[in-house]
């Protein structure tokens, strides 16, 4: 096995949301160790009332890195725009955007309020949209950029009692694909990850699933994939990668030939469910128009 040279980020500017602790902090530490300049964003405060973003930024500076703290609330449209401008004003550019900030509200769908849904969608989905919208003009002007959005396997596959989170993460998967298609033909890469790590946000989930051994679900096993997707050598665009405990794998949407009938009826659907549900001969569309290859339109 050949080993490529170490991925470096010397002189590059990275914004990491939710970087005061957990996955975001780990991503920021690894980027700083490899030469990146960091804008550490987090709205949380420690038990003593201090900003966790400043704590992480101070930690990076103590290690010899360049880092500034930003306490913008990613659920606030104007604040997110100001966050991106903070990076440009502090360091002159934005090369890397890692959307990591998150929250969660769990309950059966019929017990959720509109405010419950909005509270999660604003942070995950709208925060991701607003940050990309603010960062992409800067990246397009310079002809370069890397964006890594934090999705989830829950957004791809679903989970009970998690409608706000699942809806938000499914939306992020879609936003990532759209942004990648909108910037196709440039040296801008937009990808997403579906990480599994034992963090404060995930603690309640794993407490309800004691059969899962969390010992290997460290944040350190996720950051290497984020580093690759953030690096200039990244070849992927619009992809979703599952990342956990040393495993990295593609998650994708497929479509298969299924059933064809010129005079389709409800009864035919019922009688041919096995054919309709059979994934044999599937394709992995890179965009919606690719599914037309399976239609008999001529």
How would you describe the overall organization of this protein?
With 298 residues, the chain is an alpha/beta fold. The chain is 39% helix and 14% strand. It has an eight-stranded mixed beta sheet with strand order 3-2-1-4-5-6-7-8, sandwiched between helices. Strand 7 and strand 8 form a beta hairpin. The mean pLDDT is 93.
What's this model, at a glance?
The chain is of the alpha/beta class.
Write the layout of secondary structure elements.
Layout: E1 13-17, H1 22-33, E2 37-41, H2 52-62, E3 66-70, H3 77-91, E4 96-99, H4 114-142, E5 145-150, H5 153-157, H6 163-182, E6 188-195, H7 203-207, H8 223-230, E7 240-244, E8 247-251, H9 266-271, H10 273-277
Parallel strand pairs: 1-2, 1-4, 2-3, 4-5, 5-6, 6-7
Antiparallel strand pairs: 7-8
Helix pairs in contact: 1-8, 3-4, 4-6
Order of helices and strands: EHEHEHEHEHHEHHEEHH
Q: Tell me how many strands there are.
A: 8
Number of helices: 10
- Evaluate the radius of gyration: 21 Å
Question: What structural keywords apply?
Answer:
Rossmann fold
